[in-house]
């Protein structure tokens, strides 16, 4: 089922989400809904708070672009990007590289705004799976960026928070208009 995507200004996007403690039928249904919603919106990732659920849970699918990473290791071994997509994870943990790079980002909860965000170029992510196993992923490129963007959502952080001060100022009016649209429903 496609769910409505929570828009900029709604308080749940600013919350630190709760860990998933039990994978029950409602979580399985929520994940199915999140995948449907992400595909319908042509997104590469979606976090639970974006569909109104205060939970540390997200989905990512960057398989449209097999060249979007220059390396990918899964549990220490070289892996094929498609083999782990769509990526579904609960209660994630991230370690970043020192080196940073700029990359274009948008967000399904912040319509019509895209901007370059500076983030660590590579990550090591520990991603618990629904069956109790754990995926350890090391990657760069769009996958590293998507992991950081979605995990930010679970901590109430949005990509516009990570823009340099000058870009924030120039974006201020556009964000205020979005807030007004959200308030008017
Ligand atoms: Ni987003």
Cα shape = globular
- Per the CATH scheme, the topology name is Peptide Deformylase
State which percent range the strand residues make up.
25-35%
| Count of helical stretches | 3
CATH architecture: Alpha-Beta Complex
Structural class comes to: alpha+beta
Q: Reading side by side through the largest sheet, how are the strands ordered?
A: 4-3-10-9-6
Biggest beta sheet attributes: 5 strands, antiparallel
**Residue runs with pLDDT of under 50 for 5 or more positions:** none
Could you explain the architecture of this structure?
The chain is α+β, with helices and mostly antiparallel strands and 185 residues long. The chain is built from three helices and ten strands. It has one domain (11-184): Peptide Deformylase (Alpha-Beta Complex), CATH 3.90.45.10. The longest helix has 20 residues, at 165-184. The radius of gyration is 16 Å and the shape is globular. The model has no long low-confidence stretch (mean pLDDT 96). Residues 107-109, 149, 153 line the site of nickel (II) ion.
Please describe the topology of this protein.
Blueprint: H1 25-40, E1 45-47, E2 57-60, E3 72-74, E4 77-78, E5 87-90, E6 93-96, E7 100-107, E8 110-120, E9 122-128, E10 134-140, H2 141-154, H3 165-184
Antiparallel strand pairs: 1-2, 2-5, 3-4, 3-10, 6-9, 7-8, 9-10
The structure holds nickel (II) ion.
Nickel (II) ion (NI) binds at residues 107-109, 149, 153.
């Amino acid at each position: 089922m496609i769910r409505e995507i929570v828009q900029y200004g709604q308080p749940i996007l600013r919350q630190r989400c709760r860990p998933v403690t039990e994978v029950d039928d409602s979580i399985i249904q929520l994940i199915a809904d999140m995948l449907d919603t992400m595909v319908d919106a042509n997104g590469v990732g979606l976090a639970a708070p974006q569909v109104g659920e205060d939970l540390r849970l997200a989905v990512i699918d960057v398989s449209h672009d097999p060249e979007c990473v220059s390396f990918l290791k899964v549990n220490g071994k070289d892996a094929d990007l498609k083999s782990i997509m769509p990526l579904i994870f609960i209660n994630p943990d991230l370690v970043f590289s020192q080196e940073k790079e700029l990359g274009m980002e948008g967000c399904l909860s912040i319509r019509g705004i895209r901007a370059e965000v500076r983030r660590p170029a590579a990550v090591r992510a520990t991603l618990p799976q629904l069956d109790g196993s754990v995926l350890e992923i090391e990657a760069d490129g769009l996958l590293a960026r998507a992991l950081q963007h979605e995990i930010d959502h679970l901590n109430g952080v949005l990509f516009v928070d990570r823009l340099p001060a000058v870009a924030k100022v120039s974006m201020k009016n556009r964000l205020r208009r979005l807030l007004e649209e959200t308030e008017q429903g």
